[in-house]
């Protein structure tokens, strides 16, 4: 489902299908605000297409002409011949999947080279192998970070806006990729950390990227994932260094608000105690602690017996809306859904609480 912050947007999963489908004949240029995962599309496409292609990443803003190719004298023929950089792997006959990352920030001379690649599948004077796919990325023009393209070139490509991941989409990805529970729980409690400035009514949102702001550190899908290494090492860093490092990664407001979640995880009853005594162990009273326990469950539960035990604990939580959070998380986690979909306790709960979905 596309993000609500833009009407005419596509999701990142839709793009991993769209780019290979049209990218041989028409070049898609994917636009979104900073940190939404555009660059990860190359690895997604690699996973889908396999080793039948060479995969080329071009970091456009940092390249110059000699990084792409050079004209070399041929003394025998007294002519000039164009030599292409090894970056493009033209010694291999495989078709290429070329990502021109941040194309619209390229130096002006390179925009000419890259535009020919997008329109004619040429690297300078050398053709890419038949069947090659070319796509680019860029920030939104409204982001104010220096992206531009000539109108006549823009009319020859396919400019597509990518939806910013919703909190639920990001949480599903984060759970599959081992992002710390404290970060996931915080995002679950503060979903506005993944809002977009294009949503409207975000002037007072202290967490997100805003073109009018000078803050370099803010919450985005990317920066929240990068904060994981800080949280994993917080015992080594100490509280002050942890908070300073988080502030420099996701912003001062997010760092301050997340600190309570970092302390909270340490204060929770060990999850194994919940499984050993699901009807007797104390149920946390505050919502944040309850949500943190649910993230623990998604990470730890490995079989039907453990899930049955945990459902006894879940049923002691007074709010069915809070219970529904675990149900949703379990069904969005690739590992957990295989257990939950065959579990009678889950099925009975879903039947009883169908009005929540």
Polypeptide structure, described:
The protein is an alpha/beta fold. It has 2 domains: 12-161, Rossmann fold; 167-356, no CATH class. 46% of the residues lie in helices and 12% in strands. The strands form 3 sheets. A 5-stranded parallel β-sheet has the order 2-5-8-1-9. It has a two-stranded antiparallel sheet with strand order 3-4. The chain has a two-stranded antiparallel sheet with strand order 6-7. The longest helix has 16 residues, at 252-267. The chain is elongated and about 90 Å long.
Overview features:
357 residues; alpha/beta; Rossmann fold; 2 domains; 18 helices; 9 strands; 46% helix
Give the structure's gist in a few sentences.
The protein is α/β, with parallel strands linked by helices.
Residue fraction in strands: 5-15%
Terminus-to-terminus distance: 16 Å
Give me the side-by-side strand order of the main sheet: 2-5-8-1-9
Secondary-structure class: alpha/beta
Largest sheet: 5 strands, parallel
Q: Oligomeric status of the shown chains?
A: single chain
Write down the overall mean pLDDT: 89
Low-confidence stretches are: 1-6
Helix count from the secondary structure assignment: 18
Based on DSSP secondary structure assignment, what is the total number of beta strands?
A: 9
N-to-C series of helices and strands: HEHEHEEEHEEEHEHHHHHHHHHHHHH
Gross geometry? elongated
| Rounded Rg | 25 Å
Helix fraction, binned, reads 40-55%
Tally of distinct domains: 2
